Amino acid sequence: SDLCIGVTTTWKALADHFFSTERTAYLFHYYTYWPMVGLDAAASITASMTATALSVDRCLALNFPMKHSEKWSVVKTKMLLAILGVLSLLVGANYPVRMTVVKSVVPHYVTSIGANKVFTRVSSSAEFILRMAIPIIVMMVSNTWTLVTIHKSDRFRKGQVKDAHNRVKTTKCLTITIGVVAIFIITHVPLAIFLLDDMIFGFVHRGNL
User: Fold this and answer.
1) The model's pTM
2) Which residue from 105, 98, 102, 111 is spatially nearest to 198, judged by alpha carbons?
3) Which among 54, 87, 107, 190 has the fewest CB atoms less than 10 Å away?
4) Above 50 in pLDDT, residue 177?
5) Is the peptide bond before 35 cis (omega within 30 degrees of 0)?
6) How confident is residue 117, by pLDDT bands cut at 50, 70 and 90?
7) Between 157 and 89, the higher pLDDT residue
8) 3-state SS record for the chain
9) CA distance 133 to 129
10) CA dist., res. 209 & res. 32, Å (int)
11) Comparing 26-30, 113-117, 142-146, 171-175, which segment has the lowest mean pLDDT?
C-alpha cells in the first residue's frame, strides 16, 4: 500500500508538470490521471484499514491469547486483507467515474455522474468513514485497551518479584501509540476537511479559494 501511494503521488506530480507540454502527454494524462487518483485513495484506505486491523489483532492477542490463536488463522487474515483491498478499490473507483480531464481545466472537471450531488456525497462519505473515521476510533479504543493491559501486567510483575521495580522497565508503548495516532490525525486533517465539505456542500465551494 505504501509503495503504491508513493508511485501514484509521484505520477500525479509528473502529470501536472507535463500536462500542457504536448498532445501525447495530454492524452496520457487524460486516460491515467483520475484512475491514478482513485488508486492512490484505494491504497491509502487499505493502509489505514490494515493498520487498524493490526491494532485490533494485537489487542485481542494480548487480552485473549488462547482464543485468538484457536479462532484466528493465517487464512482468515489473508481473506480479510483481500476483502479490504477489494472494498478500497471500489471506493477509489469513484474518482475516474466522477472526474475527468479537459484541456482548459487542469485537472478538475466533473462528469455527468460527478455532477450528481448525492453520488458525490455518498462517495466522499464512504472514503471518509473507511479512511479516517473507523481507523481513528478503532485504533484509539484498541490501543487504549492494549496499554491498560500492559500496565496491569507490569504492575503484577513488579508486585511478584522483590526489587523488580528496579529491574522491570516501564513499557514505552504509551508514547509510541499516542505518537502514531497523533501523526495519523494531523496528516489526515486537510483531507478530512475536504471530504467533509464534499459530504455537506457538494461542489459549492470548489473554485472559491
Assistant:
1) 0.73
2) 98
3) 190
4) yes
5) no
6) confident
7) 89
8) CHHHHHHHHHHHHHHHHCCCCCHHHHHHHHHHHHHHHHHHHHHHHHHHHHHHHHHHHHHHHHHCHHHHHHHCCHHHHHHHHHHHHHHHHHHHCHHHHHEEEECCEEEEEECCCCCCHHHHHHHHHHHHHHHHHHHHHHHHHHHHHHHHHHHHHHHHHHHHCCCHHHHCCCCCHHHHHHHHHHHHHHHHHHHHHHHHHHHHHCCCCCCCC
9) 5
10) 26
11) 171-175
Residue 14 grid cell: 509528473
Residue whose entry in the numeric block shows the C-alpha cell 511478584 = 160
Query: How many residues can be counted in the chain?
Result: 209
Residue 171 cell numbers, joined:
513499557
Cell 507490569 belongs to 154
